[in-house]
Amino acid sequence: MDNREHLLIVSPSPHQHCGLTTEGMMASVLLALLPACGVAVYLFGLPALRTLSICVVTAVIVEVLWQKASGKQPSFRDGSAALTGLLVAFNLPPSSPWWLALLGSLVAIAVGKQVFGGLGHNLFNPALVARVVLLVSFPSLMTRWSAPQPGRLLADAVTAATPLGEMKSALWLSGRLPPGAGGSLTDYLLGNMAGSLGEVSFVALLAGALYLLWRRVISWHIPVSYLATVTILSGLFWLADPTRFAHPGVHLLTGGLMLGACFMATDLVTSPLTGRGMLLYGCGCGLLTLSIRLFGSYPEGVAFSILFMNATTPLIDRYLVPRPFGSPRTWGTP
């Protein structure tokens, strides 16, 4: 009887653990973003490294201070604060002033995360909340981009326009895309273009996303539906009028689309729970992103689209509830 006592133990589900923990998931995402960090520092030098460091350190400090002020045991071991700080840095121009990077992490942790109750309770992606707040408050600083200077750590910052910004300006002035608007897709693929720290390396971000898919930290539903929606719709517009609408490859490889689709829209806290819900969510993000890019005043729409869809997540989860196993429709009966 002693050998079978464990058979009488009753405990709540889940009875089998998938092996993923919060700490492990955060560590996996941080590891997946390391290639993009390396490319950003290679392209933009020490200013990029400074921005990354300030954002991460500030996010961790603000998290600990908030927990201490709230009477909780201060802890940052789950890695969520460091990840939020890194994503804030990825949404900033490479040569951002130190105080802008500090303010971005402060807003992300205090306003985007802790006000809602901390990890697991926030309605919106904290890093995107910080980006939008900074963009509205300091538009000139948040759109002051640096031209990449590969391998020159101490290179002087030279301002340049992003591919999407250049196209938007040309459309405002002449109603047509500038000559060579498609640019070099190879440069776009490798990240050799102006933009924020997380916008410039499709290959590095893709490598990180594939790693997360392999580790099953994220599922394919949101990235695929998001990227496919933007690609298909932009392709239809391009076929209709290539003088006003850019090639779908430009939309896919430039801006924050890859970062948003694979690392921000897939946030487990702010995205739907079911596969059908994720597909709807991803398609909504893609539709809104392309609508803002093509018809809005901003050249980029990833942040706004993801935040808007974050707000719809509770509704999506409510109306796309999985059917219980054994329900009539499961068996094919009316």
UniProtKB/TrEMBL annotation:
The complex is composed of six subunits: RnfA, RnfB, RnfC, RnfD, RnfE and RnfG. InterPro entries: NqrB/RnfD, RnfD_bac. One of its GO terms (biological process) is electron transport chain. PANTHER family: ELECTRON TRANSPORT COMPLEX PROTEIN RNFD, ION-TRANSLOCATING OXIDOREDUCTASE COMPLEX SUBUNIT D. The chain crosses the membrane at residues 20-42, 98-116, 128-147, 193-213, 220-239, 245-266, 278-296. HAMAP family: RsxD_RnfD. This is Ion-translocating oxidoreductase complex subunit D. It is a multi-pass membrane protein. Keywords: Cell membrane, Electron transport, Flavoprotein, FMN, Membrane, Phosphoprotein, Translocase, Transmembrane, Transmembrane helix, Transport. Its cofactor is FMN. It comes from Syntrophotalea acetylenica. Its EC number is 7.-.-.-.
